[in-house]
């Protein structure tokens, strides 16, 4: 059985002799953030944090800068909408370029938009749109917004089905319920799977998703993983391959929030099966693939943060093979929006709250 002690403002999570799992210490790096959504590390040691309300914040020398970064475009912070991901360009040291995803528009006509911009001091300059989901939709739900880079430097963006538009996740003529892939200047890669089809949007990389909330690229194995919210049940982790159809809403392990059946099928020919699903739902929200040195026992695992379940799941993964899951951070009793891992293997968590925090997770054995 695990035991926990609160010591000098640090939460120490220890394991008894013979118990499996890591020993870690959690401390607060920053607090007072309005529903923080994404964290990014810069080469000079600074961190950037997005607040869903539309602010981009900076952490310098372990301290949250009071004033937000200037120049962020207006966002639609309604419902699940707001400012989502921040990513640094793979060549940030040379070009100081960032990428931001956010909900753009009005409650009656909105979409997920991605911009690139140059970070100059504490201001964004040369802001330009490189992707805007088509068409616009009504309502404030299911925007997706997670992004990552593939080995070739292309940018993949997870999108949502707009909640009330779920059947459109099977329609290649729009971006609802898709993962898209673009070059960093917004152009379409020449090897995208639907590029030469007149009935398809050329940016589409995969289809049949509900609401992509976590995405991670395994550079060692060359694999792209994504997870998505199910309805009531049926949260999924998938290995994403170009051109594949992941089934929503034709197949699902969940039911509607009312309890009504969405589909009688959990599998059908030509539709991909998830690597795993959580039923009942945990409401997955972020994901990282752990390859660090801080926690050797976690290497080769996906770490998936959850909102409703207020925990993270460590999912050992080898290609398409899933190992025995382990629950992490449940003792925090926090909705966990995002997880990131720095170059040393230290883990960072974002709590989803109006007074949200950036938490840092280190091995208890680490010397001060």
From TrEMBL:
Stretches of the chain forming a coiled coil according to its record: none
Gene3D superfamilies per the UniProt record, alphabetical: TolB, C-terminal domain
Any Pfam family the entry gives: GSDH
Domain Glucose/Sorbosone dehydrogenase: 33-360
InterPro entries to which the protein is assigned, alphabetical: 6-blade_b-propeller_TolB-like, Glc/Sorbosone_DH, Quinoprot_gluc/sorb_DH_b-prop
Keyword vocabulary terms for this entry: Signal
Signal peptide: 1-19
The name this protein goes by in its record: PQQ-dependent sugar dehydrogenase
Upper lineage: Bacteria, Pseudomonadati, Pseudomonadota, Gammaproteobacteria, Lysobacterales
């Amino acid at each position: 059985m695990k035991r926990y002690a609160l010591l000098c403002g640090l939460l120490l999570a220890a394991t008894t002799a013979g118990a499996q799992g890591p020993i870690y210490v959690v401390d607060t790096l920053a607090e007072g953030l309005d529903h923080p959504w994404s964290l990014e590390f810069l080469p000079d040691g600074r961190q950037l944090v997005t607040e869903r309300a539309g602010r981009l914040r900076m952490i310098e020398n372990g301290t949250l800068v009071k004033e937000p970064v200037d120049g962020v475009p207006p966002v639609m912070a309604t419902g699940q909408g707001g400012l989502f991901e921040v990513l640094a360009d793979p060549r940030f040291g040379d070009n100081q370029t960032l990428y931001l995803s956010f909900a753009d528009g009005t409650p009656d006509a909105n979409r997920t938009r991605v911009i690139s911009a140059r970070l100059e001091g504490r201001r964004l300059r040369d802001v330009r749109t490189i992707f805007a989901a088509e068409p616009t939709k009504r309502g404030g739900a299911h925007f997706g917004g997670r992004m990552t880079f593939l080995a070739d430097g292309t940018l993949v963006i997870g999108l949502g089905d707009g909640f009330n538009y779920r059947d459109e996740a099977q329609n290649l003529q729009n971006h609802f319920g898709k993962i898209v892939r673009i070059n960093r200047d917004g152009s379409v890669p020449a090897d995208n799977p639907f590029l030469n089809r007149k009935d398809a949007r050329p940016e589409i990389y995969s289809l049949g998703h509900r609401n992509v909330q976590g995405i991670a690229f395994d550079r060692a194995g060359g694999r792209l993983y994504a997870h998505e919210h199910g309805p009531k049940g049926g949260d999924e982790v998938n290995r994403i391959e170009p051109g594949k159809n992941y089934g929503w809403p034709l197949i699902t392990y969940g039911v509607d929030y009312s309890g009504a059946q969405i589909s009688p099928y959990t599998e059908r020919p030509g539709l991909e099966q998830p690597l795993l699903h959580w039923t009942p739902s945990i409401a997955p929200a972020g994901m990282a693939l752990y390859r660090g040195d801080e926690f050797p026992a976690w290497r080769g695992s996906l770490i998936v943060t959850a909102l409703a379940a207020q925990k993270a799941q460590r999912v050992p993964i080898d290609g398409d093979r899933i190992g025995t899951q382990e629950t992490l951070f449940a003792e925090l009793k926090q909705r966990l929006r995002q997880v990131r891992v720095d170059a040393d293997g230290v883990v960072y968590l974002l709590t989803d709250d109006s007074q949200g925090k950036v938490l840092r997770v280190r091995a208890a054995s680490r010397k001060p």
